[in-house]
């Protein structure tokens, strides 16, 4: 292993340890509040949660000013991103405000705005990641608040459509990020994006025949689209969900009589063919570095 590779490995381990440490700090704060909730006064509850989150955030900003401590700032950004949502909700609770969708939307908006602008200024992947996550939370809570409360309260499939939109946004962002310093986030976004889209449409097929009919087109689009976007996760999830679709169709239309064993044989052969195509694409277009 060259010195450069050793340095990179050391840096990765260092960052992982920072994040683990930040996660442990978050757990400590949460356990402290939960165990002593009844004995803490209102001001202390806010200081321990929201105060800790804000203090961690500004500590991270200060650490970012010095190159020697810049890497440590990620741990404090993690602590602030985990603690501040709890702190804001605790503050609303102490104020006697019911924690319903409107309050969750306001909380998501505050956190999304903070981390979005900070990520633009600091250009750190962890800030971008939390901006995306809080933006996702803002979209889900705000649309649920508006649609499910006022327009379509009985729209049971609505969360699946929300996930499709979120997944599409993730894939778009992953494609854009692959061209700049945020490229490390592309794999995460591609994976969750395609999983959300394929999983949601697969479930929608149980409610509406339209989605069941067009599902093979979408799955094959994901499998062969993996070559264009250079994403193994597209290929992997596309293959898995195509196999799931084959099982679903055979069990739905050939579950009785002599057709069932015959359908299982065809399904098995089809799955072998899918696996072969998937392996061939992976071998041809995704050579190990």
What does it look like?
The protein is an all-alpha fold and 289 residues long. It folds into three domains: 1-91; 100-153; 156-289, no CATH class. Helices cover 81% and strands 0% of the residues. Helix 9 runs antiparallel to helix 10 (259-285).
What tags apply to this protein structure?
289 residues, mainly alpha, 10 helices, 0% strand, globular
Break the fold down into its secondary structure elements and pairings.
Layout: H1 3-35, H2 42-63, H3 73-94, H4 101-122, H5 125-151, H6 158-177, H7 186-204, H8 209-229, H9 232-253, H10 259-285
Helix pairs in contact: 1-3, 2-3, 3-4, 4-5, 5-6, 6-7, 7-8, 7-9, 8-9, 9-10
For the biggest sheet, the summary is: none
- Estimated structural class: mainly alpha
User: How many extended strands?
Assistant: 0
- Give me the strand/helix succession: HHHHHHHHHH
- How many separate structural domains? 3
- Output mean pLDDT: 82
Principal-axes shape call? globular
Contiguous uncertain segments of 5+ residues: none
């Amino acid at each position: 292993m060259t010195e450069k590779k050793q340095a990179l490995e050391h840096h990765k381990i260092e960052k992982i340890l920072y994040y683990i440490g930040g996660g442990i700090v978050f757990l400590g704060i949460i356990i402290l509040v939960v165990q002593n909730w009844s004995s803490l006064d209102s001001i202390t509850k806010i200081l321990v949660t929201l105060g800790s989150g804000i203090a961690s955030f500004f500590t991270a900003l200060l650490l970012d000013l010095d190159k020697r401590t810049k890497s440590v700032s990620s741990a404090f950004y993690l602590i602030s991103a985990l603690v501040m949502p709890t702190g804001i909700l605790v503050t609303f609770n102490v104020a006697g405000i019911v924690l319903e969708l409107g309050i969750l939307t306001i909380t998501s908006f505050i956190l999304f705005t903070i981390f979005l602008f900070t990520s633009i200024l600091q250009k750190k992947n962890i800030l971008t990641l939390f901006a995306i996550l809080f933006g996702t939370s803002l979209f889900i809570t705000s649309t649920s608040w508006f649609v499910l409360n006022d327009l379509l309260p009985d729209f049971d499939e609505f969360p699946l459509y929300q996930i499709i939109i979120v997944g599409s946004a993730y894939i778009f962002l992953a494609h854009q990020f692959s061209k700049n310093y945020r490229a490390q986030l592309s794999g995460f976004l591609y994976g969750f994006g395609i999983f959300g889209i394929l999983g949601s449409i697969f479930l929608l097929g149980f409610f509406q025949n339209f989605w069941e009919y067009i599902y093979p087109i979408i799955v094959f689009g994901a499998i062969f689209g993996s070559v264009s976007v250079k994403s193994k996760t597209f290929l992997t999830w596309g293959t898995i969900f195509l196999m799931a679709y084959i099982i679903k169709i055979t069990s739905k239309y050939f579950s009785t009589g002599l057709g069932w064993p015959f359908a299982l044989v065809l399904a098995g052969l089809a799955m072998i063919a899918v696996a072969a195509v998937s392996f061939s694409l992976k071998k041809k277009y995704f050579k190990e570095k």
